[in-house]
Amino acid sequence: MLEQVTVGFVRGAHGVTGEFRVESASGEFEHILVLREVTLRGSGEQKIFKVEYVKPADSTLYMKLAGIDSPDDVRKYNRWEIVVPRKYAAPLNKNEWYIDDLKQCSLVYFAENKDGLKDKSESAVKVGTVTDVLEGGGGYLFEVSISENCDLLSKDIRYTASGKSRSVFVPFNYEHIRNVDVKRKEIELMHLWILE
């Protein structure tokens, strides 16, 4: 598991002093209100900032960081992730995971027996890698890069018409995904047809 996790996102300037709106990654705000230092990450870069203040507003937060002093400064960091050490992130409940921990997990498939449960004697076949987690209209979606050497999938499913490795979206729900193990970096896919 990663030592740092994303707790929010920069969502545009508020006023003229370099203050910006914060979108919470978890929907919770309490843990962000007490932060004293954050890392902003985006565009292949990351930069550490001291927090001058965080203040709550209607369903959002406003944050001011040392060195970001104008709307133009904020524009540079718009849509960047706000990253902190794991100990400062919102606490998790059962069946909750940090998005950063889900990224780069292997998506594995077990041959199913007649009752739909995996056969414990079978070994997992890696069918892809979770590259991102996105919000969709009906819930979260895994963006999955399909494994090029998975013999369970035909070539036209593994590759695009131009021969590039395919990516697909898989709904992150109990019907399609089970047994999330972020320590082993492994997530079980219930149905192969969802990759087609």
TrEMBL record:
Lineage: superkingdom: Bacteria
Subcellular location: Cytoplasm
GO MF entry, a single one: ribosome binding
Record Gene3D superfamilies: PRC-barrel domain, RimM
InterPro entries for this protein: PRC_RimM (IPR056792), RimM (IPR011961), RimM_N (IPR002676), RimM_N_sf (IPR036976), Transl_B-barrel_sf (IPR009000)
Entry GO terms, CC: cytoplasm; ribosome
Domain RimM N-terminal intervals: 7-87
Keywords on record: Chaperone, Cytoplasm, Ribosome biogenesis, rRNA processing
One GO BP: ribosomal small subunit biogenesis
Subunit structure comment from the entry: Binds ribosomal protein uS19.
The name this protein goes by in its record: Ribosome maturation factor RimM
Lineage, opening ranks: Bacteria, Pseudomonadati, Spirochaetota, Spirochaetia, Spirochaetales
